[in-house]
Each structure stands twice: as C-alpha cells, then as structure tokens.
Amino acid sequence: MNVPRIPHLLLLPPYPYTSSPISKDMSFSRISLESYLIPLEEINRATENFNQQRCIGGGGFGAVYKGQLSERWQNLAAAIKRLSRDSFQGEREFRNELELISKFHHENIISFIGYCDEDKEMIIVYEYAMNGSLDYHLQDPHKMSCITWTQRLMICIGAARGLSYLHSGLGEHNRVIHRDVKSSNILLDNNLVAKVCDFGLSKSGPRNQSDTQIYTRVAGTQFYMDPAYHESGILRKESDVYSFGVVLFEILSGMLVYHEKSFGDDCQQNLITAVRRYYNKEPHKVIDPNIRDQIDTRAFDAFQEIAYECISFNLMERPTMDKVIERIEKALTIQTHKPSASIPAARSMIESVVYKLKYSASPDEQQIAASEIHLLAKGHDDNRVAIVQAGAIPMLSHLLGSPDTLTQEHALNAILNLSIHDENKGIIVSSGAVPGIIYVLQEGNMEAQENAAATLFSLSSMDKNRVTIGSAGAIPPLVLLLSEGTQRGKRDASIALYNLCMYQGNRIRALKADVVPILMKLLGEPHGVLKDESLAILVILSSQAEGKLAIGKEAAVPILVEVIGNGSPRMKENAVGILIEICSINQKYLVEAQELGVKEKLMDLLHHGTDRGRRKAGHLLEKMSRLAEQQKLFARA
Question: GO:BP terms for this protein (predicted)?
Fold first, then answer.
C-alpha cells in the first residue's frame, strides 16, 4: 500500500571548484578491505536470490534486503543494500561509502559487516536494525505515538553522538561530513538506540582546520538541505547541523518535514515553515499531541532552543554537535527528574486500583478507580503492562456502557492509553472491548467520539485486529465521523479507516457505507487538511472493482488532475495511482484527463518527481500513448 515516500535526492551540477582531497590514511584500500569481502553466493543464499519478500526498503539507490548470514559470519541478521547499476549512487558513491564505513567504530554508527563487488554487483552489508528507520515511525502516527518523549530525547542524543563522532572523533587529521542527514538515515535497533547510516554522499576533510570547507557538487535531500550549502556549494559541518535540526523538529512534532498539515490554523504548511512561524509566541503548536502531556515545560524549552539554533540561517549561530548533545542531555535530565506518572508505579498500587475497579459496587468508586487507571496508563509503559496483567480490561470494557459520561470517558481514555503498548492491543480486542468502543463512537459526545476513533486507529494497527473491528460494525460510524466530526475527529477516523481497509473485507464495508463521496469531498476542499489521508484511503479502495466504479462516479478526474499538478510529492503519486486504476475500467476517464491537460503535469512529474512518482507517471503516459495509437488506427479505418 502507499506509504509516505522520502523526497527525491538532489544531485545538482558540480560546483566549479575541486573537492577537498581525501586524506591518505582514509583512502580506499583494496587490501585493507579484502577481509570484508562476502561472496555473491553467500549474499544470494541470505536473501533467497533477492526475494522481494525479503525486501525491507528501497529508493533511487536500489533496494535493501533482510538476510541471515551463515556461520562463517556468526549467523548475523544483516541488512543487505544492493545498489542499482543505474542508480544515483553509482560506483563512486559505493566506493566512497566503503572506504568510510569500514573505518567507523561507534555505538551510534551502523556497523559494517562486509561487501560484495562480484559480477559488477555493488552490495554493502550492515548490521540489521530491528526497529527500522526513524522515518518509518514518523510515517505512521500510531507507531510514533508509541515512542515516549523520554525515548525520543534518547534517540536524539544517540544520533547526535554519531554525527559528533563523524565531525571530530576520527583522529587528529580527519573529519567526515555526512551530507545527507535525514530521518531515513537514522536507524533504530531493538532498544531504540539510534544508528546513523548511509555514507554514499559523505565527504572527508582535514580536522585540523577550525572551519573545514569542502567545495563540491550540491547533493542531499530536499527539505533537509542547508540553504547556505545549497546556494554556495560550500560544504561545512554546519550543513549537517542544519539537517539534524530538521530531524529534531520531526521527532518533536511526530511528522515528516515534507508533509503538510494544519497546526490549528486554516492553512496547510510544512513543518519548518510552522516552526519558524510559531517559535517566538506559540512554540507548543508543533508538539506531537501524543506526547504533549508527557513533556516538562523546562525540558521542552531547552530542546526547542537548541533545535532552533541548528536551523538558523546564520552559520555562526549554529552549535557544534557536542553542544547539541550537551543541551539535549540537559533536557533529558530535567525530564527524567520530573516527579510524575512517567515513573513506573509500584505493582502493588496498580493491583489495588484494579481490585477496586473490579469489585466495588459503588458507581462513584468505580469512576475514581477508572480515573486512576487512566492516569497510570498515561505514564510509564511498565504501568500499561501491569494494568493489563492485573485484569483491568474486561471491567473497563464494561464501563464503556456506563450511563455516567465521566466514568465512560475515563474507561475509554484508559483503554486508549493501554493500547499504546503493542502486546496489549490483542488482549483489548480479545477481551471484548470493541463493541463498547463502537457504542461510544455512536452515542458519546464529540470528544468521546474522537477518543473512540483514536482508540480504534490504535487497535487497528495490528493486522489480526482489523477483521474483528470491521465485523463488529466500526466502519459506518467512522465514516459518519469522517463526514460530520471535528478536525481531530475526522483525522482519527481517517487513520482508523486507512488501517481497517488494509483488510479486503473492510474495503467492501467502507464502500457500502458510502465513504467515497465523503473522501472526494474532502479531497476537493480548497484548503482541506485531510487531502493526504483521503488519497491514501482512495488508493486502497481503487484496488477493488467496486472502488474503481465508485470513484469514477464521483467526477474524480478533475480533482485528481488538479492534485497531480499542485499536490505534495506523495499526493501526486497517489493521485496518479488512482487515475491509473479508474482508467483501467473505462477509457473515458483517460480521455477526460487528457482534455484537462494531465499530460503536461505527468511530464513534469516524470522529470521532477520521486522515483515512485516517475514510475507511475510513466505508466499513465504509456496508457495515453496506446490510446492515441488506437485512435489513429480507428481514424484510418
């Protein structure tokens, strides 16, 4: 299915100066790398001949596969990066990355296992990071909501330490500038320890100069790139600092920098625009709502101040990475010494509260117990585990039907917070909570409906829960909330529907609930804030024959053509994908799109879009070309 894609790599014409020479002791040495050679036979065995089911990532450079190496390589789980022979990252970048990463040794730099250049292959093998890339979590609101503020601070510190090592930890004569710092190049292991990766574009230079400058072609990724470097072609360590500042605000906001959203206003804006707009008067607006209640004000002030210094347009105002580490560690110290429910509660206390919830005959006492569990569940993850183990879910589920709205609210919010812990999701659903959540979604006040939708989108992030939630009747009230709810309600309903529609049976339910007209209306709103979400759901629905018909009936073509011309990169990709699907059942939609000038927009996407956008644009242009040939043949006949 469609997930947010990384903006395309920028490789601009070479700057008219020569690059700083690589120091002798860091030059590429085939002899020193021979011990790292891995035979292609071993790579093929580990990846099952590059089986697509083992593919865990990809982009313009090629693809990354998960593989299990043999005993000779200690049976390591590995990430195997196979560069495409016609990729942006050609042999020069391949060799560059090898010569650098083979010499890196740091906890926060991804570990190098080996490489393969047999039969003109360009393959680099790294340690496997179980929790994937940071941007993988930022793409999914639920996944990001599971990472607490304290954990986010620790991720920031880890990544900063990795970059500090590159800038100053490689010996007296060496400094490496990463040149492509972004959330997709920060990996997370099973303990959420940050690992900086991808050094194909990195440059090395002498450390013994106070202000190392490298004159080079401009390369990096749009939205993360230092404006000063983009304009001058002069690469400095401060360029990495700027990019890292962007990542810091991504982590704070829980969103990718190139996505647009409303921050409480009518207008859509990207993250850094919002940061600069609200920094002085309303900085809290960019905080991820999932962690807002967790953040100590002083910790937030310390964090946002150093993050904002990183993205200063003035190079002299940007801090060193060591200073960044110092300030974020200060924020972490403030945060972890905050007396609050963020510290795990004693198990005996939790068991006592759950006992009161289960066995009290007094509605007032049940309300108090539900309130206490709600607060405990908002805190430490250990609390969430202990509450569920103590058997609270069945009684909380029962209280969802309470005539007392406050009791109902506390019970629902407790379940919502308990669902943050992944292992609780299945228990909540199997304990029979879903009908009660749907009851609140149908009968509760608007705030209760919003929280019910948020709970359903949290629970529906697990594949096995989607069937149960859909068959219990969640989709019609979610569609109604998408149509008539507040902005928050619509957002939560859209994410829940997106998750649920991953299961084919739920797509039919959504279509029967007339979700398509509502999605098209949201997509057609001039200043709509749910365009991205609406397109994502429509992409899934367009895989069904019934979905194609429903979308076609809603005069979708003009709206889709408009998005292809003016939408964000991901929106353009999704709009083209939907257009391809509906054109497959009726060529009149293709004719209509042509008449609306889609060809020019597709040509622009073909030349300036993301890799995925270019592929989709090419596919639709081929359809148009075939149609033109058919029309010529028909005219001759």
Answer: protein ubiquitination
Beta bridge partners of 114: 125
Gap between the Cα atoms of 414 and 350, Å rounded: 13
- Please calculate the CA angle 262-263-264 and round it to the nearest 5 degrees: 95
Q: Return the pLDDT at 217.
A: 56
Q: Is 81 annotated as a binding residue?
A: yes
Cα-Cα-Cα-Cα torsion 137, 143, 146, 150, nearest 10 degrees, comes to: 10
Instruction: State the angle between helix axes of 475-484 and 446-459 in degrees (0 to 180), rounded to the nearest 10.
Output: 130
What digits encode the pLDDT tens for the residues 602-627?
998 888 888 888 899 899 988 888 88
Cα distances from 551 to residues 484, 520, 617, in angstroms, run 20, 8, 20
Instruction: Please state, in angstroms and rounded to a whole number, the distance separating the CA atoms of residues 501 and 509.
Output: 9
Beta bridge partners of 188: 194
Burial class (CB in 10 A: 0-12, 13-18, 19+), 189: middle
CA distance 60 to 398: 51
Q: Which CATH number fits domain 31-128: 3.40.600.10, 3.90.1150.10, 3.30.200.20, 3.10.450.50?
A: 3.30.200.20
Query: Do the domains 31-128 and 130-338 sit in the same CATH topology, yes or no?
Result: no
CA distance 537 to 511: 11
462: left (phi over 0), alpha (psi -120 to 50) or beta: beta
Burial of 35 (0-12, 13-18, 19+ CB in 10 A): exposed
Q: Is the pLDDT of residue 19 over 50?
A: no
Q: 9: which strand partners?
A: 221
Report long-range pairs for 610-619 (Cβ below 8 Å, ≥24 apart). 610/5, 610/6, 610/7, 610/8, 610/569, 610/573, 611/5, 611/8, 611/59, 611/60, 612/5, 612/573, 613/5, 613/569, 613/572, 613/573, 613/576, 616/573, 616/576, 616/577, 616/580, 617/576, 619/576, 619/580
Instruction: State how far the Cα of 487 lies from the Cα of 299, in Å rounded to an integer.
Output: 29
Q: How far is CA 161 from CA 104, 166, 170, 520, in A?
A: 13, 9, 13, 46
Mean pLDDT computed over every residue of the chain: 85
Residue 430 predicted with pLDDT over 90: yes
Residues forming a β-bridge with 57 = 64
Write out pLDDT tens, residues 352-405.
Answer: 888 888 888 788 788 888 888 887 887 778 889 999 999 999 999 999 998 888
CATH number of the domain located at residue range(s) 130-338 in this protein: 1.10.510.10
169-209 pLDDT per residue, tens: 665 557 889 989 999 999 998 778 999 998 878 877 665 55
